[in-house]
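S1.2 Input.
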Amino acid sequence: MLYYLFDYLAQLDFPGAGLFHYISFRSAMALILSLGISTIIGKSIIDWLQKKQIGETIRNLGLEGQMQKKGTPTMGGIIIIVAILVPILLLARLSNTYIILMLITTVWLGTLGFIDDYTKVFRKNKDGVSGKMKIVAQIGLGLIVGLTLYLSPDAVMRENVKVIKADHNVEVAYSSTVKSTQTTIPFVKNNNLDYRNFVSFVPIKYRTAATWAIFVLMAILVVTAVSNGANLTDGLDGLAAGSSAIIGVALGILAYVSSNIEYSAYLSIMYIPGGEELVVFAFAFIGACIGFLWYNAFPAQVFMGDTGSLTLGGIIAVFAIIIHKELLLPILCGVFFVESLSVIIQTSYFKWTKKRTGTGRRIFKMTPLHHHFQKAGNSGIDALLQRPFAVIPESKITVRFWLIGILLAVLTLATLKMR
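S1.3 Output.
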């Protein structure tokens, strides 16, 4: 909203109004505003949650310090959502298709998570919204994102840009603007993968539709996987919020270079016109996560609940899909990926050993993986698989996961030149 006001004032030569045309200025303002909103309103929301007795129900799983968290307010994801929406509504170009998709994602998954938390807290249903309903909602969002990118005339890109250097002058050459199902992949010289390659067997007249069908299915898979991964990661104070902030920084950088004609040319990645507005969103996202950490860092005064974790994961997924970097997420979101993988491995191994021997065995002491390091080691048949035996303090686990997340973010950015 402010963008359009100052755009009008700039046409009237109002002093300083032209600043709103600069992505760097609006991004910085979005970061400051989201950080301020999350820290200022955070206390009020926490007090309201405590007044309404919206506290976390804790099951005793034998984890160090676990029962001390009983009654800590949950549904704190409301803080994150408000701290993202307000700066974006004020500072972003709301006519931008990508911003519209990000706003839909935030509200869609925020609502899903809120309903889930509401069911758990007020209706005393510990399972919350059924798994099937969550999957249906995530599939619905994936469909909206995939079909919008397919049908919208504004969702376009320019094929691999080239930089020609002669006499210290840089000339930028690029193809015409096109709809594309290409995506960036790491570690290879020709770093674009086109989903069209998977439907080469389809008759030519149906090939475009088949290609976009693959793209939509990929969007559904990515949204579902990353949002659930973030949800599983939200088990230690500050872990999900801190990890998401780190991922947000990397995505902001990727959005910036993808929307800059010269940087995208230098890195030989796709140029995405209009993608610069996503930088504003990324900075609002980072500010909201960091501001939430003010209250969520160990020992947490509030938990984000599914209201926050599903929203954070969905935002990361859709953001990456829009800038055609979804295949970098297994590296960038490595913490989320490993957390999800640990649950899958544990469940599969338990069922397999129970079927073969009648007694289910476990590879990890407990999953998701962060709980493995919180629980004392067992002795006996599974002891070698369940190291370390000593309990690691929660705050140390969180910081170590953050450090791993930083390394993965740096590696993700480095893959653009590691070819």
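S1.4 Remarks. The beta strands are 157-158, 162-166, 169-173, 177-178, 182-184, 192-194.
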